[in-house]
Write a structure and sequence with these properties.
alpha+beta; SH3 type barrels; Alpha-Beta Plaits; 54% helix; 19% strand; Mechanosensitive ion channel; cell membrane; mechanosensitive monoatomic ion channel activity; MscS_channel_CS
Amino acid sequence: MDYSAYLNTTFLGNEIKNYVLFALIIIAGLTFKRLVSRLLSKLLLKLFGKFGSSVNAEVFINLLIKPLEILILLTALYLSINQLDYPLDEVIFSRRDTHIKLIDVVDKVFLFFIIITLFWVLLRIIDFISHVFAYKASLTESKADDQVVSFLKELSKIITGIIGVFVIMGSVFDLNVATIIAGLGIGGIAIALAAKESLENLLGSFTIFMDRPFVVGDLIRVDSIEGTVEKVGFRSTKLRTTDKTIVTLPNKKMIDGALENMTLRNYRRVKFNIGLTYDTKPETLRKINNEISDYINQRELTNNDVTVIFESFGDWSLNLQVLYLVEMMDFNEYLKIREEINYKIMEIVQANGADFAYPTSKVIHHQTQDTEGDQGFTD
């Protein structure tokens, strides 16, 4: 059998050998995409040398393997399609001196996706570099460098994305990028006005990094919102509240409003009142006062500056005011200390034969006698 004659046979505008090459290239791409992508990942990793030696190489490979596989498949598909002449060489648009073939459109589509995939690879490399810096930052005591790494990672990705858009506009759509950039310069004022709040939040993020009113991990309070800083982004800051929910606040609000960094405090302040019944004797009240003060002073993790005073005569109670400071910054530990002190106060009050007051009213009846000797009562 003459195989050469068979392969040169034309079918639907293409020779059989072209269909064979088409199929072989696609099969090779599907078969070796994982192997080739891993090899390319390892070659790229060698470019980083000692920089990436502090982390597991699999981290880098896992980041790149997916985009590289897609890049290999796109390349294989593009090479396979180019083995066919018909119908790719057909003119699909014609006007004056302009003639566009189907292959021209296919080329542009593949170029578009290949550029996107290449920038995807670049973004994954940025992720790896950020991962290495984040690992090195975690070895230091300061949390400011962790915050800087996260910020620079986002900044690098945004800049890379903008460059990618301009590359696509110039390479795929044949636009004059220089003219577009100049046009953006002319319309910059209009864009700035339209994105006023976004720009304010962006400037707010730079202010946070320069002034450092807080870093990632600090416990802060903004207005009535209290939480631990988890991330500082370009537009907003994420807080993990004591209810374990995520609250996202615009950076503009973080620098314009009153912000309290409770991590920088030495103590947590506790202040409340105790109401005792009016039948409590003065000496009992003094004893309860002194015992509460002594207990809090002697307890660990509380400041010696304790104030327990007989504050006022209430409508239905004798009011003692208790004021003390807790050294523990962890919120859960702080709550446990408050709970223990509250239980002890109850024990002290009950041990002295006193009782806590609650809203009550007392009605007094006056007995009177009329002129005929009858007795009656009036309120």
